[in-house]
Design brief:
The chain has one domain (2-242): Rossmann fold (3-Layer(aba) Sandwich), CATH 3.40.50.300. The longest helix is centred in the middle third of the chain and has 17 residues, at 117-133. The chain has helices spanning 42-50, 72-77, 95-107, 117-133, 149-162, 179-190, 205-211, 229-234, 236-242; strands spanning 2-13, 16-27, 31-35, 57-62, 65-66, 80-82, 167-171, 197-201, 214-219, 222-227. With 249 residues, it is α/β, with parallel strands linked by helices. It is built from nine helices and ten strands. Helices cover 37% and strands 25% of the residues. The protein has a six-stranded mixed beta sheet with strand order 6-7-8-3-9-10, with helices on both faces. A four-stranded antiparallel beta sheet has the order 2-1-4-5, covered by helices on one side. Bound molecules: adenosine-5'-triphosphate (ATP). Adenosine-5'-triphosphate binds at residues 13, 16, 18, 36, 38-44. The site of adenosine-5'-triphosphate has 11 residues, from strand 2 and helix 1. It comes from Mesopusillimonas faecipullorum. This is ABC transporter ATP-binding protein. GO terms for molecular function: ATP binding.
Length: 249
């Protein structure tokens, strides 16, 4: 059953058509990768799905509900959560406390945090479990400013998971991560909950081809191709667009 349905989404900035009649569906538990050259419109598409940008035309349905006009925060409350290409972490707050704050945000309970210690203990337990699920217990009490960059990217995913997403939009989780830490990210992504639907934007083709069940290729804002990793690997047009830019072998 589809959890997310995007139909004929278009967006222009002035004369520049940045998304052009894009449609996609995403089923529960599915991993969809959005790939394409720089400037293809991937982030703009994710921004529209997340409600950061409104589309000029087209529609977005989450669990059969039309969310096209919903603001971003309402989409988050209904389980549509995104991460960012650039870090939004608080640099000096310990990891577990950042996750706890995200849980409180989910529960709309920031104001009662300090009054109800038992509840805060329960929240910390949940935060610890989320970190453990991503093999991040080792940095639970560390602040981002003292963490390896790959761990910071994983903490961002932990914060998103604290919001209990049904659909997770991951914007370049591998961006800026040194090769030596790439395997950590891959391992963590492979441990995401099986029923979570994920849309990932990523330039690292190794990650894309290992992680994705389906790949959608964007070029000039439009869908150039869509299919399984094998379909995309064999697609001559995709190869031509990527020639010299990425390794699809
Ligand atoms: N707010 C904006 N105003 C004007 N043009 C914009 C705006 N945001 C993006 N663009 C343009 O839209 C096009 C698509 O940008 P977008 O960031 O969505 O591409 P992308 O596929 O995510 O690229 P990358 O892989 O480099 O992150 C680019 O030409 C970009 O310059």
């Amino acid at each position: 059953m589809s959890v997310l349905r995007v139909k004929n989404l278009s967006k222009a900035f002035g004369g520049l058509q940045v998304t052009n009649d894009v449609s996609l569906t995403l089923n529960a538990g599915e991993r969809l990768a959005l790939i394409g050259p720089n400037g293809a419109g991937k982030t703009t598409l994710v921004n529209q799905i997340a409600g950061f940008l409104h589309a000029d035309s087209g529609s977005i349905h989450l669990h059969n509900e039309d969310i096209t006009a919903w603001p971003g925060y309402k989409r988050v409350r209904h389980g549509l959560v995104r991460t960012f290409q650039i870090s939004k972490l608080a640099p000096t707050l310990p990891a577990i406390e950042q996750v706890a704050l995200a849980i409180h945000q989910r529960e709309d309970s920031i104001s009662s945090m300090w009054r109800d210690r038992r509840s805060y203990t329960a929240v910390l337990d949940e935060a610890a479990q989320i970190l453990e699920g991503l093999h991040l217990s080792r940095i639970a009490t560390a602040a981002p400013s003292a963490m390896a960059y790959g761990d910071q990217r994983l903490l961002e995913i932990a914060l998103a998971l604290a919001l209990r997403p049904k659909v997770l939009l991951l914007d370049e989780p591998m961006a800026g991560v040194p090769r030596s830490e790439a395997q950590l990210i891959l391992d963590a992504l492979s441990r995401l909950p099986a029923d979570l639907a994920v849309v990932i934007i990523e330039h690292d083709m190794d990650l894309v081809f290992r992680f994705a069940h389906r790949i959608l290729v964007l070029a000039n804002g439009a869908v150039l191709a869509e299919g399984t990793p094998d379909d995309i690997r064999r697609n001559e047009v995709v190869r031509a667009v990527y020639l010299g830019k990425a390794e699809l072998a």
